[in-house]
Design goal:
Strand order of the largest sheet: 3-2-1-4-5
Structural class: alpha/beta
CATH architecture of one domain: 3-Layer(aba) Sandwich
CATH topology of one domain: Glutaredoxin
Number of strands: 5
Order of helices and strands: HEHEHEHEEH
Helix content: 25-40%
Shape: elongated
Largest sheet: 5 strands, mixed
Number of helices: 5
CATH class of one domain: Alpha Beta
CATH superfamily of one domain: Glutaredoxin
Oligomer: single chain
């Protein structure tokens, strides 16, 4: 009798392992990696001008008394195209937005802004992703809310979509 059960033991073990794997795939843990800057000052930086006629960006610009969204984006980023109209809507609602163009060329950046709108007060070029890494950003698009004292208050990973707008506005209001 014991030998009959022993024959089925490998099948039962395999079924348990497969069941555990299926359960984990169906219920993944939260894999969001939060920036270590939440609650801390933005990194100290002073970037050059990204485009003629568009002011450069420095960390001091993020501590002028008014909260801002710092949006990491790129002309080559497809989700950034989808996010562009939502950023324009936020800007029209009085939300101040600055941009950091990651691994982009000025001509591509100018074309992107011409085609999809320009909600940015200032833009910093980030050709080697140094600012992106300093903020703890994992990719583009990614947006940080910085309060008027230059403290990072929130991080939004991925494109901002229309359904995010009320939460973003509330967060900006609470950062005033």
């Amino acid at each position: 009798m014991v030998s009959k059960w022993l024959r089925f033991l490998p099948v039962v073990l395999v079924a348990l392992v497969v069941g555990a794997m299926v359960w984990r795939l169906a219920n993944p843990p939260d894999s969001t990696v939060q920036s270590q800057l939440i609650g801390k000052p933005v990194p100290n930086f002073e970037a050059r001008q990204a485009l003629p006629g568009k002011p450069a960006l420095a960390s001091a610009d993020l501590a002028d008394g008014e909260p801002k969204l710092v949006n990491f984006f790129a002309s080559w980023c497809v989700p950034c195209i989808a996010e562009a109209p939502v950023l324009m809507e936020l800007q029209k609602r009085g939300i101040r937005i600055v941009g950091i163009a990651v691994r982009d060329r000025p001509e591509d950046l100018a074309q992107f802004l011409g085609q999809h709108g320009d909600p940015f007060e200032r833009i910093a070029p980030d050709p080697q992703s140094q600012l992106q890494f300093a903020f703890g950003s994992a990719g583009v698009p990614e947006t940080f809310l910085v309060d008027g004292r230059g403290i990072v208050r929130m991080e939004h990973v991925g494109p901002i979509v229309s359904s995010d707008v009320p939460d973003i506005i509330r967060a900006v209001e609470s950062a005033r």
